[in-house]
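Mods, move this if it's the wrong board.
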Amino acid sequence: MDRLSIMLTPVTGAVITGFIVIILFSLGFYSWTAVAIGAGIGCVLAWPAAFIVSRRIKENDPFWQADRPRLGGFPGPNAPEV
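Not the wrong board. Structure tokens:
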């Protein structure tokens, strides 16, 4: 797991949960179970989606350099991931 995906996990979880709940509400399912289903799906898919987004950001960013020096107290890009 890389550090960027850790930061993206809550955001992607919220987006996925909101997307599923909006779809269920628009289909006429107005109950707490619709929200619970959306939250469950969001929790399950949050980290895999964040990992994919993190990899795509790192592959497509022309300024991402794996050999940058460390800045302050932050680990360098080459440091082992969590």
